[in-house]
Amino acid sequence: MVNAGDMNGSGNLMDFLDEPFPDVGTYEDFHTIDWLREKSRDTDRHRKITSKSKESIWEFIKSLLDAWSGWVVMLLIGLKAGTLAGVIDLAVDWMTDLKEGVCLSAFWYSHEQCCWTSRETTFNDRDKCPQWQKWSELLVGQSEGASAYILNYFLYIMWALCFAFLAVSLVRVFAPYACGSGIPEIKTILSGFIIRGYLGKWTLLIKTVTLVLVVSSGLSLGKEGPLVHVACCCGNFFSSLFSKYSKNEGKRREVLSAAAAAGVSVAFGAPIGGVLFSLEEVSYYFPLKTLWRSFFAALVAAFTLRSINPFGNSRLVLFYVEYHTPWYMAELFPFILLGVFGGLWGTLFIRCNIAWCRRRKTTRLGKYPVLEVIVITAITAIIAYPNPYTRRSTSELISELFNDCGALESSQLCDYINDPNMTRPVDDIPDRPAGPGVYTAMWQLALALVFKIVITIFTFGMKIPSGLFIPSMAVGAIAGRMVGIGVEQLAYHHHDWIIFRNWCRPGADCVTPGLYAMVGAAACLGGVTRMTVSLVVIMFELTGGLEYIVPLMAAAVTSKWVADAFGKEGIYEAHIHLNGYPFLDVKDEFTHRTLATDVMRPRRGEAPLSVLTQDSMTVEDVETLIKETDYNGFPVVVSKDSERLIGFAQRRELILAIKNARQRQDGVVSNSIVYFTEDPPELPPNSPHPLKLRRILNLSPFTVTDHTPMETVVDIFRKLGLRQCLVTRSGRLLGIITKKDVLRHMAQMANQDPESIMFN
User: SMART domains attached here (predicted)?
Assistant: First the structure.
């Protein structure tokens, strides 16, 4: 017997795997990353850079560049996300107005911009100017009358259908991943799942273009959720430029968490809310360093958007409000009622939308995504046009509902009967009886509320970019404004009631209906998404209404309590489960008294576990095992008799290692012995060269005993981000538990279909 290392002086060849080779450490599509391994690799890389930095000035400069690369990536993400958001806002304004008319002096101007530049616009007719013409004026020279109305109606529908058809066609042909909100998939990716192409360049380009088209088409959807996806695409692109992030999936996810914060920052003009949204709602692993970088990325993104000034009001906030009346304790009751409404609406929406999306997946309806989008767009445009509150863009509608009625407001909602003897200052108008305009507006708002509730259920989840924040806020704002007007009129006509007597005297400005709209918007958004802290911060950043935090908090908490009473899942978690993504939610509690031995594979009656031995299998044996199974990795044991655990080898790395060895090392053939030990085994003379694969072996796989409670195992999988965990007894291998096994077991315990977890 001779040592194989002494044959033909080939010992150095057998250790060629001590040098890294391409694709080792990468993951296949629809697989979960190993957080512990990624963390360990980054620690090794950092240790190597630190030790090298003491060798020369150049290495020291390289270590500084490495340290600053994270901040550079954040700066680039903030600049790109802010710029794209500004361009999207400007394009949406123009294309939304294009459905109704065109600016003759400069066709790229929106209605508002067109009339800004006009010198012939009066204050009373500030929405009318000679430069802006409706399509009926331009084509047939008439602005009033039945024929003009019908022509404008027809062209409104045609433009909407054109925008929607173009959007769904672009998504279908060029970037199928550009559809939907993107937040469920971002949450899944941040938990460690790989979806190749979801954050790619084509997805970024198509999502940006189609987002403008679908929002302009008038469909009941928003751009806020998709902007998070767009920002994460930017984050993925810039992280691929730096090897620190491109070669480490764990570090890449830290960048994506910060990018999500930048996305919300530009979507709402809420940088602090963006950071909290990333922390509360999206991120799975959020170290303190990522918090600082998220803050910086959100700051840069908000600053960039402010520089572009897409709203033309020199403000970052989308719906700036300025109320002159404080809120009173007695108003907490209607605020809490709005919270209850928000929770009920959230529950109704999630159940109906998931039922419709499941029907879309399981029936022939899913085969015709273009037709579905066209039909929903046509129905939306036909019903929306006659009602002025549904015809305009949803953002404009929310802005009007949030507004306080000043002396200069021309909205129907502000058509109150004025007291001719009123001598109060302009900004402190007392409560007044509602005029005919307010009653008309109430009927139109009631119809708009029913329409928005129904159409949003069918719109969210179609094969186009679709956000849910703005439609949810619109439903709440409509309901809130109606409640606000009701309370205002009640206080005016019955100011002698005991609940109004202390704070609402005749001639006082007691109730602000716009505040109720704001609270209703927060309640409905909270009911659908189950956000709390980040929601309140986003709302006060969005509106500038800092002193109204308590009503917002009361509504947000109430809506969450009510919605949670019917089911713990928010809309994003519901879509994650519908799509079968392997997402282990940190918020879920596991309270069942099961053990690791109940979940591990193999179970009784199943074939024994497929394992590798440390030094007795040939290359052909390993290749046969890989070919005959589809497992992602194999435990390595001393021998099949002892089953003493040595380590764990990933399937992908075994395939790559054997392929590279055959190409680069002479003498490696099918009957070469594969060994995972430090020293080669003793082999008979004239044996082929053995193959050393110790480098790809994980010598410290995570193990639990067979009597470990599943509650502990689930916690370990959540907090350490494991792919798999080996089950042992006294060092002897018994079985394996994968993330998929944990998810199946949790589904089974919750009386759900365990096979709904589709991916690895």
Answer: CBS
Is beta strand 132-134 parallel, antiparallel or unpaired with respect to 101-103?
antiparallel
pLDDT, tens digit, 9 for 90 and up, residues 553-589:
999 999 999 999 998 889 999 999 898 888 888 877 8
Instruction: State the pLDDT confidence band at 379, using cuts at 50, 70 and 90.
Output: very high
Contacts 24+ apart (CB under 8 A), 135-139: 135/100, 135/101, 135/102, 137/101, 138/101, 138/102
Distant-in-sequence, close-in-space partners of 613: CB < 8 Å, separation ≥ 6: 636, 637, 638, 639, 640
Distance between CA atoms of 41 and 20, rounded to whole angstroms?
12
Give the closest residue to 469 by CA, choosing from 525, 542, 517, 521: 525
Amino acid at 6: D
- How far apart (Å, rounded) are the C-alpha atoms in residues 15 and 338? 69
Mean pLDDT confidence for 128-135: 83
Read off the pLDDT of residues 150-168 as tens digits, 9 standing for 90 and up: 999 999 999 999 999 999 9
410-413 contacts at long range (C-beta below 8 A, 24 or more positions apart)? 410/124, 411/441, 412/388, 412/437, 412/438, 412/440, 412/441, 412/444, 413/437, 413/438, 413/441, 413/481, 413/485, 413/513
Average per-residue pLDDT for the chain: 86
Q: How many whole angstroms separate alpha carbon 613 and alpha carbon 104? A: 79
Instruction: List the structure tokens of 194.
Output: 């790989």
Candidate from 75-79, 171-175, 492-496, 630-634 with smallest mean pLDDT: 492-496
506 pLDDT tier (thresholds 50, 70, 90):
low
DSSP string, 511-576: --HHHHHHHHHHHHHHHHH---HHHHHHHHHHH--GGGHHHHHHHHHHHHHHHHHH-S--HHHHHH
Q: Which residues of 187-199 are buried (b: 16+ CB within 10 A; e: fewer)?
A: bbbbbbbbbeebb
Higher-confidence residue of 20 and 487: namely 487
pTM recorded for the entire structure: 0.89
Look up residue 597 and give its two tokens: 């031995």
Q: How far apart are the C-alpha atoms of 693 and 674, rounded to whole Å?
A: 7
Four-CA torsion 395, 440, 559, 757, nearest 10 degrees: -60
Q: CA 586 to CA 279: how far, in whole Å?
A: 12
Q: What is the pLDDT of residue 759?
A: 52
* DSSP H or E stretch at residue 703: strand 703-705
Q: How many residues are recorded in the chain?
A: 760
Which parts of 617-726 fold into alpha helices (H)? 619-628, 651-664, 710-720
Identify any residues that bridge with 379 across adjacent strands, giving them in sequence order.
Answer: none
Sign of torsion, CA 398 399 403 405?
negative
Q: Which phi and psi angles does 681 have, rounded to 5°?
A: -70, 160
Please give the distance of CA 581 from its chain centroid, rounded to a whole number.
Answer: 14
How far is CA 265 from each of CA 206, 296, 387, 534, 689, rounded to the nearest angstrom? 21, 11, 32, 12, 59
* Interatomic CA distance for residues 156 and 123, integer angstroms: 27
Q: Where are the alpha helices (DSSP H) in 586-726?
A: 596-599, 619-628, 651-664, 710-720
pLDDT value at position 2? 38
Question: Can you list the alpha helix ranges (DSSP code H) found in 191-319?
Answer: 201-216, 224-239, 243-246, 249-268, 271-277, 288-308
Q: How far is CA 355 from the centre of its chain?
A: 21
Residues 78, 300: contact at Cβ < 8 Å? yes
User: What is each CA distance from 68 to 62, 293, 295, in whole angstroms?
Assistant: 10, 11, 16
Query: Which domains, from first to last, does the chain contain?
Result: 82-98+176-320+333-361+394-418+427-578 (1.10.3080.10), 596-750 (3.10.580.20)
